[in-house]
Amino acid sequence: MTDNNSMKDFMDQIDNSMKRIVKGQMVEGEVVSVTEEDVLVSIGHMKDGIIPKEKATFDMSKSLKEQFNLGDIIKAYVEVEDDGEGKILLSKVKLDRESSWDELQRLHNTQEIFEVTVKEAVKGGATTELYGVRAFIPASQLSMSYVEDISAFVNKVLKVKLIELNKDNRRVILSAKEVERDELSKKMDNLWESIDDKYRVGDIVETKVVKLLKFGAIVKLEEGVEGLVHNSQISDDRVMNPGDYLKEGQDIKVKILTIDKVQKKISLSYKEAVAKEQSTEFRKYAKNEDFGTTLGDMFGDKFKDIFK
Fold first, then answer.
1. Which has more pLDDT, 190 or 175?
2. 46-101 residue pLDDT tens
3. Which residues make Cβ contacts (< 8 Å) with residue 118, sequence separation at least 6?
4. pLDDT score, position 284
5. CA 297 to chain centre
6. Which residue ranges does the record assign to the S1 motif domain (predicted)?
7. Which residues, including other chains, have CB under 8 Å from residue 197's CB and lie 6 or more apart?
8. Quick check: helix, strand or coil at residue 253?
């Protein structure tokens, strides 16, 4: 029984090896040799399949020996039935590229964050490669900050999201800006969650004026934490234009009036901080200043006699 099965398997192998291989056919085989230039695959045919490096991998920066091992089972498409040297020319990249769109669709659906290396600066943005598919990062999506020199991003590793995908047009759009925005949002959530540990109503704090509006001034307490100084809290005078009292970039002290953790809002007073500072300075002055002769100096112990 065993001998019969072995003979049958042997005859099946011979039959398979004699079957015609055609261009476009998908074959599966075992890696039997790996060199710097190509991968040799036994596909159960009288001819072995050979995969040149450019058709074996998307990552040309690594050697084939780093990416393939003897005994690996791989699938590939037939590109040429006979390369003229008795081998069948195969392409693994072509097969992988087709399955890449399934992975790209998954990344788009889940909005998963992943890393890419920027390959080239082009008009309007930068390009990279994702599962063998060319992807584009518009200049407006490279960073939350204004991008002046796109070439400065070449060879940089960026955390990105896949924000637009169209297989028919082979359109793959990535965004690093979205990731930065999400990370900043999480950081701010954590910061505001513990805001009471750092700031309290009544505190006088150092801030910087970052923007002047018709109704007041926006000041920065620290990165991610800003507050409003309403016109009514800039001066006791009627303030029609905050720019008459404050300038963008100016460092000022303010008093914290209210903190709203839910709305992430802090209301502040410039005039109360100034008043408190002036009051403190006056007390220091009064304490240290010599105002001259006092009544006690003039009458000495005579007051004691009066009240005996």
1. 175
2. 889 999 999 998 888 889 999 999 999 999 999 988 777 778 999 998 888 888 89
3. 126, 127, 128, 137, 153, 154, 155, 156, 157, 158
4. 61
5. 73
6. 24-93, 111-177, 202-271
7. none
8. strand
Task: Output the furthest CA–CA distance in the chain (Å, rounded).
Answer: 139
Alpha carbon distance 168, 204 (integer Å): 60
pLDDT digits (tens, 9 = 90+) for 140-173: 999 999 999 999 999 999 999 999 999 999 999 9
pLDDT of residue 307: 44
CATH for the 195-288 domain, from 2.40.50.180, 3.40.50.20, 3.30.360.10, 2.40.50.140? 2.40.50.140
Nearest CA to 117 among 105, 132, 108, 129?
Answer: 129
Q: CA 308, CA 198: separation in Å to the nearest integer?
A: 57
DSSP codes joined into one string, 30-73: EEEEE-SSEEEEE-SSSS-EEEEHHHH-S-TTS-HHHH--TT-E
Look up the CATH superfamily of 8-96: Nucleic acid-binding proteins (2.40.50.140)
**% residues pLDDT > 70 (the chain):** 84
User: Look-up: residue for tokens 């036994």?
Assistant: 42
41, 32 Cβ separation under 8 angstroms: yes
- Matching fold, domains 8-96 and 195-288: yes
pLDDT grade, residue 11 (50/70/90)? very low
Long-range Cβ pairs for the range 36-41 (8 Å, 24+): 36/63, 36/64, 36/65, 37/64, 38/64, 39/64, 39/68, 39/74, 39/92, 40/87, 41/74, 41/76, 41/90
Token pair belonging to 87:
């081998």
Tokens of 211: 């923007």
Class of domain 111-179: mainly beta
Considering the entire predicted model, what is its pTM?
0.56
